[in-house]
Amino acid sequence: CRIRNQSRKRFGGRALMMRCDSVSIVGGQSMPSVGLGLWKIEGEQTADSVESAIDHGYRHIDSACDYGNEKQAGEGIRRALQSGVCQREQLWVTSKLWNTYHRPENVRPAIQRSLDDLQLGYLDLYLVHFPISLCYVPIDQRYPPGWSHDPNDSASRMQPDAVPIAETWGAMEELVKDGLCRHIGISNFGVSLIRDLLSYATIRPAVLQVELHPYLVQSKLLRFCQQEEIAVTAFSPLGAGSYVGLGMANSTDSVLNDPTIQQISSQYGKSAAQIVLRWGVQRGTAVIPKTVRIERLKENLSIFDFALTDAEMQRISQLDQNRRFNDPGVFCEQAFGCFYPIYE
Questions:
Q1: Model confidence, pTM
Q2: Residue 6 pLDDT more than 50?
Q3: To bridge 157 with a disulfide, which of 143, 227, 337, 343 should be the other Cys (CB 3.0-4.6 Å)?
Q4: Contact 24, 30 (CB under 8 A)
Q5: What is the rounded distance in angstroms from the CA atom of residue 128 to the CA atom of residue 121?
Q6: Which secondary structure element, helix H or strand E, spans residue 92, and what is its range?
């Protein structure tokens, strides 16, 4: 977090503003701390949503093969760049390697498909989406391939493929060397897997993306990443909202309705979502909330004109329930017939 004058928060008697508008990346670069997450944005809404986000000041777009909307996201990026609102170099675009492409020979074709769909010559960040390797599904056969090996077969299930992460990571490193992405990283990894990866990586992971919100604080994981100079992006930074429609959460699980968040929200004259997002960026993480509404795009970006006190940050962190909504150890068995825990 960068700090400047003009804030309600006081340090040593001086009013200062903790902007926290970017997250440092090893090597001296930075990633905008608020981005637009594309998970669950419908294809027909994606191009307009991405273009609107960039028009309203977003410079961080988080996509993935599995979201099934990268082609439309690419159209939105193309329109925004063509209008001159910003240059390609000012954007941070992330995509992710899907589970079926972990074998080294499949890594380059996977990123190339994402680049083609996004209409880009390089990615700023390419992540291993899950530490889950599944049997290969050819791109020309089904894309995105999804979780089930054959979704047209009612009896189909996930088909794991035993690919060492070291082999996948070696192929990811080649992407950086060949200029297809500037940085590589990981998603949904825990401390033990990261520590193992660091033991052999020639190019260290620049970013870890994981579920983080006040009901899933993950303070030890965040501290470990800060220690290892790995930036952290929080997906589902507002908690349960994205999971209610999937049957993976109830509306009563929303942290936005929590009395503590509501009280702080009232105090600052900010929405509950802005308080939760501010907590996220003030912890030093990037956040990638999803929305297709213009008013929400503006609201989610308007969190840099105030700062939470240390006591307020602590109060929010104490809401931790270790409540994980996105858990393959639960949904893989329920939806895809395969018990596949990764966090235990």
A1: 0.94
A2: no
A3: 337
A4: yes
A5: 19
A6: strand 92-97
**pLDDT at res. 5:** 34
For residue 159, CA distances in Å to 64, 132, 137 come to 21, 10, 11
- Give me the pLDDT at residue 292, please: 94
Non-local CB neighbours of 246 within 8 Å, separated by 6+ positions: none
Tokens at 222, concatenated: 């965040």
CB crowding 144-160: b at 16 or more within 10 Å, else e:
bbbbbbeeeeeeebbbe
Mean pLDDT of the region 14-36: 81
Asked whether 282 and 20 are in contact (CB, 8 A), the reply is yes
Q: Which pair of structure tokens corresponds to residue 121?
A: 């010559």
Strands 29-32 and 22-25: antiparallel
Alpha carbons within 13 A on the beta-carbon side of 65: 27
Peptide bond into 144 cis (omega under 30): yes
Three-class SS of 198-236? HHHCCCCCCEEEEECECCECCHHHHHHHHHCCCEEEEEC
Catalytic residues: 67
CB distance 200 to 166 below 8 Å: yes
pLDDT tens string 42-101: 999 999 999 999 999 999 999 999 999 999 999 999 999 999 999 999 999 999 999 999
Residues 297 and 58 sit within 8 Å (Cβ to Cβ)? yes
Note the residue count of the chain. 344
**Residue 154 predicted with pLDDT over 60:** yes
Sign of the four-CA dihedral 143, 324, 191, 343: negative
* Residue-by-residue DSSP string for 56-85: TT--EEE--GGGS-HHHHHHHHHHHHHHTS
- Considering only the C-alpha atoms of the chain, give the largest distance between any 2 of them, rounded to a whole number of Å: 66
Both structure tokens of 306? 């105030």
- Cβ atoms 129, 99 nearer than 8 A: yes
Query: Do strands 286-287 and 231-235 pair parallel, antiparallel, or not at all (unpaired)?
Result: parallel
